[in-house]
Amino acid sequence: MLSGLSLPELACLLVAGVLLDLLLGEPRRWHPLVGFGKLAQHIEEWLNRGKLLIGRGVLAWMLAVLPLSVLAWLAADHAGIWLHAFLLYACIGLRSLRDHTAPIVDALRAGDLQTARTRTSWIVSRDTQHALEPDLAKAGAESLLENGNDAVFGTLFWFMVLGGAGAVLFRLANTLDAMWGYRNTRFNLFGRAAARIDDALNYLPARLTAMSYVLLAGRARGRAWQCWRRQAPAWSSPNAGPVMASGAGALGVSLGGAAVYDGQVEQRPPLGEGPAATVTDIVRAWRLVLHTTILWLGVAAFLAALIVVLQRGPHA
């Protein structure tokens, strides 16, 4: 393996990292990605000026991501294999997806629309100031489905390829895309490298995520598959499209459509089929992400066990 670890070792560390995340959740006082975000902000303010903005964006990406990724590689190589599990825990966001969306569900069920609007604004970039319950339910379900890949499965994929350093590399790159990957006056040129690199790193994980959503759709597998094939090409993001379309099809709800950004209503392509999302669908989306995580862990454990059996060979 590129990480220097065997598949059985990676599988054990993968399970350990996910369990740490589920048990401990996000660090309460200082989150590594929050600190990284502040570093990235300083780098952007320093370099995002003058001419040659695309080249400056490449340099900024390298300064922000590569030193920390190399440091993670060296630390894991010298500190023992269990640091890989800790690095995965620091990067993965499975429990945080639930922790950030559960208050939205609670507020909507209690009829507290203002709190639901505020909490939803913490996890999406669209305007929620005047959003109604169906808008908030749709936003919550969409965020869970998309971030299932960005915060969970992409991290697991690159962990299996490069170990803890792979998880760090992916999450830092994904964070920069979330910060710089906008087509506006400030970031259209400077953030282009961050957006393209994130697209490349996400290409395989996004399609594995979409296929996982299809496999776990039960009787709705055909619908999830067709939604992926028909609807994903129309979505602006080449990776979010397959993930969100297959996920919406698996849930049997209609997502996409109108959303407000910077005070303007944007008509996005449709996702999924069925009735509009409700508060229950936020919970169902979280369960789909959780079950997909269990599926990935199960596959990794099975392959690891198979390798162990094959290496031992037939008994004498």
Structure description:
It is globular, with a radius of gyration of 20 Å. The chain has helices at 7-24, 32-47, 53-79, 82-91, 94-109, 113-121, 133-162, 164-180, 192-215, 221-231, 240-251, 279-312; strands at 254-261, 264-272. It has one domain (7-312). Helix content is 71%, strand content 5%. The longest helix has 34 residues, at 279-312. The chain is mainly alpha-helical. Belongs to the CobD/CbiB family. Converts cobyric acid to cobinamide by the addition of aminopropanol on the F carboxylic group. This is Cobalamin biosynthesis protein CobD. Pathway: Cofactor biosynthesis; adenosylcobalamin biosynthesis. It is a multi-pass membrane protein.
Quick overview of this protein structure:
The protein has twelve helices and two strands, in the order H-H-H-H-H-H-H-H-H-H-H-E-E-H.
List the topology elements:
Elements: H1 7-24, H2 32-47, H3 53-79, H4 82-91, H5 94-109, H6 113-121, H7 133-162, H8 164-180, H9 192-215, H10 221-231, H11 240-251, E1 254-261, E2 264-272, H12 279-312
Family: Belongs to the CobD/CbiB family.
Protein name: Cobalamin biosynthesis protein CobD
Subcellular location: Cell membrane
